[in-house]
TrEMBL record:
Natural source organism: Glycomyces harbinensis
Record Pfam families: ABC_tran, DrrA1-3_C
Membrane-topology annotation of the record: Peripheral membrane protein
Subcellular localization, as worded in the UniProt entry: Cell membrane
A GO CC term attached to the entry: plasma membrane
Listed name of the protein: ABC-2 type transport system ATP-binding protein
Transmembrane portions of the chain: none
Length: 290
């Protein structure tokens, strides 16, 4: 379990983090969402020891996180940290050696990752000659080469085409399936919804919403959608605030959804009766404007 507890950080007169807390359990993929400048990168840099917090704590497996534990983490910064004039395969293996792997182990792991990320045919190319999307894949390979216990990734999907997104998403889910806690930030909220088990939304240095993806969506449900085959207009009969969406009735603030069901069933054949769940994008927009 990786726990980020009550982080505070100030840069001059700017309060960057104001009590940020989030956690990732073994095998859990956590999406870290926020507008530019909300505090995502600062939080991740503190977790990795790149920055020091003014107060707060990073805890791993119940103990304060130290240098040795961080060596076993995989970190992908938002800015690429690659050597442009180094060949792709050599570079990934080199980072493995920096993490203490033998040359043989590092080359084996690098080869497996390049195959998984569809980069095998680019192993002999210089990084500077790769497309930005392929450089992003190399950056991910560098963060994975030493088989990390925890992954912290800052905007790993930035600039990727849909195929590359699928490849990298599968790589992250594989690591989570092997037991690694994974935290990644992204502005692509459809990816957060598709890949993550839970979400933490940050705004102005504070966590403003957090929870499981399905839990958050269920919590924000606002309306019941009813489709019924009838020539009768049920707008004035159904309890609650009722509007029409094509042939559907949208019911909000109803005191009794079973009464809605009874009235609709008496009027005709029901073809749909379900609560509309918002997307993570909709939850994010509402959370940051509250």
């Amino acid at each position: 379990m990786l726990e980020i507890k009550d982080l505070h950080k100030r840069f001059g007169d700017t309060l960057a983090l104001d009590g940020v807390s989030l956690s990732a359990a073994p095998g859990e993929v956590v999406g870290f969402v926020g507008a530019n400048g909300a505090g995502k990168t600062t939080t991740m840099r503190i977790a990795m020891g790149v920055l020091a917090a003014d107060s707060g704590q990073i805890v791993y497996d119940g103990a304060p996180l130290g240098v040795e534990q961080r060596r076993r983490f995989g970190y992908m910064p938002s800015e690429r940290g690659l050597y442009p004039k180094m060949k792709t395969g050599e570079q990934v293996a080199y980072f493995g050696e920096l993490h203490g792997m033998s040359k043989t182990e590092a080359r084996r792991s690098a080869g497996e990752l390049l195959e998984q990320l569809n980069l095998t045919d680019r192993a002999g190319d210089f990084v500077q000659d790769l497309s930005l999307g392929n450089q992003q894949r190399v950056q991910l390979a560098v963060s994975l080469v030493h088989d990390p216990e925890v992954l912290i990734l800052d905007e790993p999907f930035s600039g990727l085409d849909p195929i590359a997104v699928d490849v990298m998403g599968a790589a992250l889910r594989d690591r989570a399936a092997a037991g690694a806690p994974v935290i990644f930030s992204s502005h692509q909220l459809d990816l957060i919804e598709r890949l993550c088990d839970s979400v933490s939304i940050i705004g102005n240095g504070k966590i403003i919403a957090a929870g499981g993806v399905e839990e958050l969506k269920a919590k924000e449900v606002k309306q019941l959608r009813v489709s019924v085959e009838t020539d009768e207009d049920l707008t004035g009969r159904l309890p609650g605030t009722v509007t029409r969406d094509g042939d559907d009735y949208l019911v909000e603030d109803s005191p009794d959804d079973q009464e809605v069901l009874r009235i609709a069933a008496a009027a005709g054949r029901i073809t749909r009766f379900a609560y509309d769940q918002p997307t993570i994008a909709e939850i994010f927009r509402e959370a940051v404007t509250r």
